[in-house]
Design a protein that fits this description.
alpha/beta, Rossmann fold, three-stranded antiparallel β-sheet, 14 helices, 11 strands, globular, binds nicotinamide-adenine-dinucleotide, binds (2S)-2-hydroxybutanedioic acid, tricarboxylic acid cycle, EC 1.1.1.37, Malate_DH_type1, NAD
């Protein structure tokens, strides 16, 4: 069974681990990565750092992951694949990984908030953090956290690495490479804006609608879609903006309700995560030196200093809220610059109505996650 073998990876292989790969998001994302990631390999560059991609798929549900990997392994693309479960060990999955994507954890059911998932998912995140600390190179690896509540689980991982693994994490700047994935909010903002038919010059032939930046966190009022930054802003009236903001903030609930107990967004999330992973693949293959995007990150390092240029200014504008989703530049070393200017470009409504609602809630979730992550 070739798919069950973890091949001896060549140094030129970019290895990506997906933890929770047998779940709704994990399966769809794995399919997209297996089928769509081959294109960078076709371009012709001998100078590229890496020229092969390997997907290492892990899930605690052994039967499910075995089946998913057997199935995916028949797809005729040059992306190689291996399956991992507690029986074979997570160690092999994580060893030599450059990128770890985490959709492991419980999804919501109707009537639940994302925060209701904290108790169970924070334990999962802690155990995965331990595995990452013990098996990955903390001075190089990137981690993308999809599991909810993102607002608290990113602080869980960052604080656990700082407090439980000071020797392993010290000097690695690992916090510059641990990112919460909030891209689905951006995807929704662009989609819903397009639906109200404002962006008249977008034709059906256009694959991608222009992004509307969404900053803050990933839950209710912590989600701050900045329609003032969209090119359609001038043609939107107050009622339309209120409708759009609310729809983006509670878009997740729409899907949870429609699935009626069968989970939350998986397909749109896999699409959003694929867009993010694709950029990181470009960076890690060596196709580009820098990427730009919006992720949810720690703005401070373990000593409390700002992680990158722009972080200090941002912290001043957001009442020292220590984790935030914000446009940034990222190199192979992690976050290199924070685009704090976007705060100055917000309109009065965003600055005076939305931000004051976002910050206390977000800070509360960060405190919960940081406290949990700092415990033994
Ligand atoms: P799912 O239940 O379909 O899949 C979760 C998978 O995680 C399962 O296969 C399960 O076996 C696995 N798992 C559980 N514990 C694990 C562990 N310790 N190690 C490895 N795997 C483990 O759920 P889903 O719909 O794929 O959602 C996953 C998470 O993503 C949820 O927490 C959900 O709220 C979140 N989510 C986030 C966003 C976002 O925008 N960031 C969007 C949608 C969903
Ligand atoms: C979403 O925004 O769809 C996800 O965070 C899942 C959820 O629970 O809403």
């Amino acid at each position: 069974m070739p798919h069950s073998v973890n091949p001896a990876l060549q140094p030129n292989t970019l290895k990506i681990a997906i933890l929770g790969a047998a779940g709704g998001i994990g399966q769809s994302l794995s399919l997209l990565l297996k089928t769509q990631l081959h294109f960078p390999l076709k371009t012709n560059s001998t100078q590229r750092d890496k020229n092969h991609i390997h997907l290492a798929l892990f899930d605690v549900n052994e039967d499910a992951i075995n089946g998913v990997v057997a199935d995916l392994s028949h797809i005729d693309t040059p992306v190689s694949i291996s399956n991992h479960s507690p029986k074979t060990g997570i160690e092999d999955c994580l060893k030599n990984c450059s990128l770890v994507v985490i959709p492991a954890g419980m999804p919501r059911k109707p009537g639940m908030t994302r925060e209701d998932l904290f108790t169970i998912n924070a334990k999962i995140m802690s155990s995965l953090t331990d595995s990452i600390a013990q098996n990955c190179d903390l001075s190089k690896v990137f981690v993308l956290i999809i599991s909810n509540p993102v607002n608290s689980l990113v602080p869980v991982m960052v604080n656990r690495l700082w407090s439980k693994y000071p020797q392993l994490s010290k000097g690695t700047n690992i916090e510059k490479r641990i990112m919460g994935v909030t891209k689905l909010d951006i995807v929704r903002a662009s989609t819903f804006l397009h639906e109200v038919n404002i962006d008249a010059d977008i034709t059906p032939r256009t694959n991608d609608m222009p992004d509307v930046p969404v900053i803050g966190g990933h839950s209710g009022e912590t989600i701050m879609p900045l329609f003032s930054q969209s090119r359609s802003y001038k043609s939107l009236d107050r009622d339309q903006i209120n409708y759009l903001v609310h729809r983006v903030q509670y878009g997740g609930d729409e899907v949870v309700k429609a699935k009626n107990g069968l989970g939350s967004a998986t397909l749109s999330m896999a699409h959003a995560a694929f867009k993010v992973v694709n950029k990181f693949v470009s960076l890690l293959l060596g196709n580009v030196d820098q990427i730009h995007g919006i992720c949810y990150v720690s703005l401070k390092d373990a000593d409390g200093s700002p992680i990158a240029p722009g972080a200090e200014q941002l912290l001043k504008s957001i009442d020292d809220c220590s984790f935030f989703s914000i446009p940034m530049s990222i190199s192979k070393k992690g976050v290199t610059a924070i685009d704090f200017d976007i705060i100055d470009r917000m309109d009065n409504y965003e600055r005076n109505e939305m931000l004051p609602l976002c910050l206390p809630k977000l800070k509360n979730s960060i405190a919960t996650g940081s406290k949990f992550g700092s415990q033994d």
